[in-house]
Write a structure and sequence with these properties.
By secondary structure, this protein is mainly alpha-helical. The chain has helices at about 10-15, 20-25, 40-50, 60-70, 90-100, 105-115, 115-125, 130-145, 150-160, 165-180. It starts with 10 loop residues before the first helix and ends in a 7-residue tail after the last helix.
């Protein structure tokens, strides 16, 4: 078994971590933009530490931990020669993996969409197409529905790491406020 920089807490977490595909994914990575920590397992450790600091129900904490364990573990399966969208996006691949272990459609949706707020921010920032970005964000909110709180907690925990740009989180919080949604973090 791979030596992890965090503790597994449940039988389900242990089952996921025993999967060779997951182990290969969390061992993958070198220091890079947004992930100066290198291998994915160290990013997962940071996200789990952020989740520990949240004042949330234990059921949500368990869900967030599962999302954290899987969300970036399949970046190694992305074909760098192709656009990182659809079936070639790590979040899509991660959701497919998660479906082998998790039946909760909310957890699966958050895994699949975990980078969407960041992607929307990038679209608005780099293309200066904020109206279209906000339309995409409105669609995300509609798709998430009652899962928005879980999604936001994960997005903040995933983004609050040393090498990530805080601008997407600031924008997302302002966007939610503009839509009358209070965002705790």
């Amino acid at each position: 078994m791979l030596e992890l920089p965090f503790t597994l807490e449940s039988a389900l977490e242990q089952k996921i971590a025993a999967d060779p595909a997951w182990q290969q994914g969390v061992a993958w990575g070198i220091p890079r933009a947004g992930h100066q920590e290198g291998p994915v397992m160290y990013h997962i450790a940071d996200v789990l530490a952020n989740i520990e600091r949240l004042d949330i129900a234990s059921e949500d904490r368990c869900k967030l931990r599962l999302i954290a364990l899987i969300h970036d573990a399949f970046k190694y399966r992305v074909d760098e020669a192709r656009p990182k969208t659809g079936k070639n996006h790590h979040a899509h691949i991660a959701r497919q993996f998660a479906e082998r272990y998790i039946t909760d459609p909310g957890i699966l949706l958050v895994i699949e969409t975990h980078d969407e707020a960041y992607n929307i921010w990038r679209f608005g920032f780099y293309r200066d197409r904020w109206q279209h970005a906000e339309e995409r964000a409105d669609s995300l909110l509609q798709r998430l529905g009652p899962l928005l709180s879980l999604y936001a907690h994960f997005f903040y925990a995933d983004s609050d790491t040393e090498s990530k740009n805080p601008a997407p989180v600031i924008w997302f919080k302002q966007f939610l406020t503009s839509r009358g949604v209070t965002s705790s973090h």
